[in-house]
Amino acid sequence: MKLQDTLELYVKAAVKALFQSELESVEFQATRKEFAGDITVVVFPMLRVVKGNPAVIGEQIGQYLEDNVDLVKGYNVVKGFLNVEIEGSYYVDFFNTIKDQNTYGFIEDKDDKAVMVEYSSPNTNKPLHLGHVRNVLLGYSVAEILKASGKNVYKTQIINDRGIHICKSMLAWQRFGNGETPKSTELKGDKLVGNYYVEFDKAYKKEITELVSQGQSEEEAKKNTPILLEAQEMLRQWEAGDKDVVALWEKMNGWVYDGFEETYKAIGVDFDKYYYESQTYLLGKEFIAEGLKTGVFEQDPDGSVWCDLTKDGLDRKIVLRADGTAVYMTQDIGTAIQRIKDYPDVGGMVYTVGNEQDYHFKVLFLILQKLGFDWAKNLYHLSYGMVDLPSGKMKSREGTVVDADDLIQEMADTAEDISKELGKLDDYSEDEKKVLYKTIGLGALKYYILKVDPKKRILFDPKESIDFQGNTGPFIQYTYARIQSILRKSNLNDDVLLSTATALSINFDEVSLHEKEKQLIKQLEQFPEVIQNAAEQHSPALVANYTYDLVKDFNSFYQNVSILGADSEHEKVFRVALSKSVGQTIKNAFSVLGIDVPERM
RNA sequence: GGUGGCAUAGCUCAGCUGGAUAGAGCACCUGCCUUCUAAGCAGGCGGUCCUAGGUUCGAAUCCUAGUGCCAUCACCA
To answer: Of residues A431 and A568, which shows the higher confidence score?
Structure first.
């Protein structure tokens, strides 16, 4: 049983014995550093049941606990706060129960119902940028956190592979491409296709200028440029299944997928299943027809189909155009249903999509509920803030985007510069160094993005490079590397670590627990709860900030207490074992953030 | 205009279901490498928690109103 739960029973018993009153619950908080004690009982809420001076009541309860509870070593009362000191042996005993768990903090028995997490979901006409990076890191991490919290998880995305945007790239490539391929240009496929998307835009703008000089209004010109009309014609041909257009579409999308795959690999994320809009956009229609029969939807005289959500405080939402073609909503309805068909064990889904689409998902979830799907109540929009530059929004057409591949490379380069300056790795091979630079660079980037609350926007200044000191990924990685160094130098194998730490608890009087050691164990004790909270709140930031606190405590311990130079063998082994556990916890925490930890740095 | 989100130190961010004198990092200043990796540690400076009301023993946290920024309100996605 958790310390808090145990104490709660005793505090209730104390109140019953002393004041003949029943408490419903007891409020605890961690004791602030400036006071003696380990855990604090807040007396104020009891005043509803027990009348009197809170300080006096605290005093009486404290005395009762000291007299009746072995765990309680002492107490003090400050105003209405009862600070309880816990026997050091409690912490040593607790540590003994976790020190050999490699999966500490994770729940291994999985729920029957799985969760599907969607993230990334890019368009196929341009490379991934910093905005996608946030999406991908968040989605991956939340998926891993959910796994760690005891869920089976499927990672997926929906690839927006059809529509006018890809036709624009296709057309530009046809016109200006001279048969270029990723191979012939040595460009990543997504970059090559993205270039033609830009080419299209250039030609388009030029044609607008021409038409305007011929007397058309700008508005007219935008609709009438030959190149746009041709792109629209291409889309019609695609929808009609024109062989040549489809072949070109397949070829160019193939290039993009290869490029994306490379980027995902570089970032270190993966997917269990891909969905393509081109394959699912028709599926929703069936259910629109179904919903029309059951009255969920209504048809206007022009043939368009709507869902009336005014009673739910929202608007009327179109789900099918007058010409019978699908809109975004149609396809999302179809995709959701398809996913449950494919994976019947899925009981809920998480959509990692920017907060600009909050309204869309509110509507989508509501419609799915109205259609009567029981899983529809377990849909969650993991809505996150935009990543903005000091100059404002990123705009691909204006060339202000921060490219994902470039960014990853720059982070590794910075890691390399710093590492070389510090010069601690002279005996590493070039290959080993390269891997390490990437680990550190990515660690910096991922931590930088994941440590902020998803719903808040991020301001990213490319000129001010991401820090490697303080509350950063590399700082935490560095601490991990230090711990590994100690483990190597201690020459203690696991058997010794296990047995001697146990011996310490038996002979506890010999050695008292150092403040810094106790603090570390308290911090370790929090980890499983942090994972559960992070899963409930879909927030990797909670894990990131926890890890930082843990690491700060460790570094303080490390600098103030000699580990390998401890006075007794007992102490030394205990401290090494404690360090090892902290290292394992860092590793576990970082694994759900998708960040690797190095043996040295 | 309707709806939703955000607002905490010069900058970037924490602050769990309301609890003690609001915490970190960066930057700036002071110390600490002959002892386990100084990407570190110990300390200092720095706050009208956007504003005004309200709820209560107690509010950065909850409620109301206002201000500012962002998003959204398409037969776009």
So the answer is: A431
